[in-house]
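Ticket #1008: bound-state structure for zinc ion.
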Amino acid sequence: MPRPLNDSVYLYGLHDRGGEATMQGLKTPTSGWVLATEGVGSERNNLSGADYSDLAGRGLGVIVRLNAGYAGVGALPYATRYADFAVRCANFVQASRGAHIWIVGNEPNHPIEWPGAQWNWDVSPPRPVTEATRGEPILPNRYVDCYRKVRNAIHALPGHGDDQVLVAGPAPWNNLLRYPGNETGDWVVYLRDVLTGLVGPDRVECDGIALHTYTHGAHPTLITSAEKLTAAGFTGRHWHFRAYQDFMAVIPEKMQELPVYITETDQGDIPWQNDKTGWVQAAYSEIDRWNKIQAQKIRCLILYRWPQVPGDRWGIAGKEGVVEDFKHAITHDYRWDFDGPPPPDGLLARVEELERQTKSLLPAIQDTQALDGEVTRLKGTVDALAAAVRQLAVTDLANALAELEAEVQRLKAEIPRPPEPEAPQPPMSDLRGQLPTISGQSYPERVETAIRRVIVHHTVTRADITPQRLAQVQVNGGRPGITYHFLISGDGAIYWTQPFDSAVAQTFVPAANADGVAVALAGNFTDAPPPPVQLDTAAALIAWLVSRFKLSIADVYGRCELENVASPGKQWLAGANFRATLLEAVRDLLEASDPLRLIEKLRRQVLGLQAQVADLTDQVQTRDATIANQRAEIADLLRKLQECQSGQVIVTKPEIVDLVDSLEKHPTQTYPNRTKPITRLVIHHAASSNQTTVQTIAHYHVHTNGWAGIGYHYVVAQDGAIYQSQRDETKSNHAGGEPNNFSLGICLIGRFTKTNQDGSPREPQDQVPTPAQMTSVSHLAAWLMQKYKIVIEEVMGHRDVWPKGTVCPGDQWLVDATWKNTLRQRVKDRLAGHTGEGGPRMDHYLLLWDHGGEEWARADWPNVQKYIAHFRPTVGFAAGDALAARHVTIVGGDAGVTGVDEARLRAAGIDVHRMAGANEAETRAMLDNLVARNTLWPGAAPWQPRSAPVASAPPPAEPAAAPFVDPWDMPADGPVAILPTRGVAPDAPSAATRIKVRPYFDPVVSDK
Ligand SMILES: [Zn+2]
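RESOLUTION: The complex was predicted; output attached.
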């Protein structure tokens, strides 16, 4: 049967209809929520609604988001139409069935949700297309005004007075809405300001809060990542899933009873990774843990989104890996509503789970212990962490588990026997009918089932007064008999003084006399409480009475709580407050006599321990990650060591940002895979401004060229950042014709020509790649050459492939700066093991031997003068210095410069030549011969002096007057039109317009 709010006790949920089957029949008939979004417009006379009763009827929780419209229309309308919107929302609610939870609007701090907004999302930061299309910002006071009107209108409807109307979740990491008091545009401050606006002095005008949170990536550890933003002003804000905790932290105190719903989550700007990564399980586990520890519960975590909607990249349907992950999460049976009865096997199942978790934890701990020694040698820090985790895990947890297991065993043994129905009757002296009375008088009679409470008195006498003496005093005072059912003397002895069916005159309250059992403690507790022995037996007696008459602790009163008298003394409620001591003892006795109450208590302890286990698991995972990193570091160092020892040099993979999946693609066309191996690298320029982005190029290739996707495989930005934009195996469109089949395209951002497209001149430094670009592109090219065994001659410019078709990568490729040659040289250097960092290298070094003191190449010295004078090499005596040169000439045999040193130079990729004759005279003849031939070493090409001025080669036939229109060029950057898929929808919303727009403006990235 649907619950009153058509809600669900489970945390699971999907955005939009269609995936309900994944939440049904796994462990329970139905396990979650569906969120529907509606664009209802703002017309007062629109009376239409929608039917969700099919969902509610199946036991699914239903949440409906009410938007005025989508992109451009606004999640809320203009402020002047809030009243109309409220009427329209109420009409919609009245005409709808099966829903009682409503969200007012969406991400109101995000410009995409503002009425009249048209923004350019391809620039950073995003900005309005024109000032007129900024839209009307939904400031906190505007949102509060609108929300209040909608909420009042819905609550006024018959049958909807108790509906939950939720505040919309702000967009985390979006800082585009700034206003006085929130100058940085902090999304958390925005939520705080909205909520504060709904808290009045004596009431809270809010029924609940919706939140959005995400990770930036698909790795499950991002769910619990504590990583914070680094941008100034945001250093306290989480960068991943725990952004929800930032929001929770600003909910005003008066709102901390309200329900919270996380109505959107996913893996960030990228589509869902179609793998069972454990991300979904980790996310639900995180919220479950929050609910077990925190007072304010989160009632759902809704995955964005189920259907595949054209133009929206976050669909889940068809991604079996994600669905499997979700189904696995559902088997954990996470609920937010803990008040319902626990499953019958709850305790044992949970203990088993705890044991299993602990067992799985131990190998990890042992494994990491074994590693500690190795890692400690690298970094001492891990040791401290390991010790802390070991101590926590092994002592505290093991002890707690041992105790728990012992208690469970004891309970298991007890459960088959019928539970003891009541606390035992303590020993007592039965004096019923034996004490003084007034003959012929008696108290009214009653039936025992009339008894509803226990009333505690003090006697205001000595603590050792006898029951006989006390009865006599009261009879002398005119009472029919003693006014108590029980008397407990100061030494703890219990006397049963009146039968239960006697309604003694213990108070002046007739009702209390009729249904109360009177328990008197002998003594006067005005200044001091009863002694422990008296309290102990009082507790035993009262526990017996409470269980015998099926009462609760709350049915035990001091007489002074029923009427204006002092009994049982000032110390009952104030001072020593022996009421609390007594009732606590009664509670313990009752629990000890009732296994069910004890199980409940143990269950709470188990939950606490589970949270500890989860925390420890986190710590172990964090440490495992640290160890894995360090292992990788060790492996890397070992590999490098081996390389050095074996003389083999390997180009490491440069840092590459993978954008392939996030870039725009053609809706229908796709590129095929190549059918030939990769044997060529083709270098391009973007022929654009220096700030053009990969996204802009992809947009241009798809929308203007009509290609399946971006043409290039790699793009290198002016700051040297390398992006992968197509998979290597993709036969994309960049070089043109058959070469596409066997070449990779690398595009450098920039325009390496003398003139702009309009013919105006470019600055000299803008005519060639930046130093950072040259470093990155040479590293990338060297790495790809190594990977695919490409020869240097196949590193070509686009114009080398099609000389008549394009000037790409610019008219500076082959002339003047000849950066083609520079690039090839840098690539060769990379392949020779030089990183290219640390400044320019020496070209040629003449190495003479030096064994110290007078032992040096004294005899060779006169013989090399002619060679030095002619070729002007760098001359020196240190093999170590020679490592910085491209070419080294060694003078003399290996009795001078040793063969080991020579091998070391060769291993470093240096071109080494040794000039050694049988004696000094022969060596001299060899050197002179080289001078005569003008070659640096035998077989070398004729030498050209470096410093000689190079006559400018005549520029190739370049069009001077009419600018050359390169068919491969993109137009110069200007304002970029908004993508069609993000366009402004007309007033009538349709399914195709319900598209989420991201990326959010990102303060971290934009600062880089
Ligand atoms: Zn090109």
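RESOLUTION NOTES: The chain has five domains: 12-330, 345-419+594-646, 429-593, 656-831, 843-933.
TICKET STATUS: resolved
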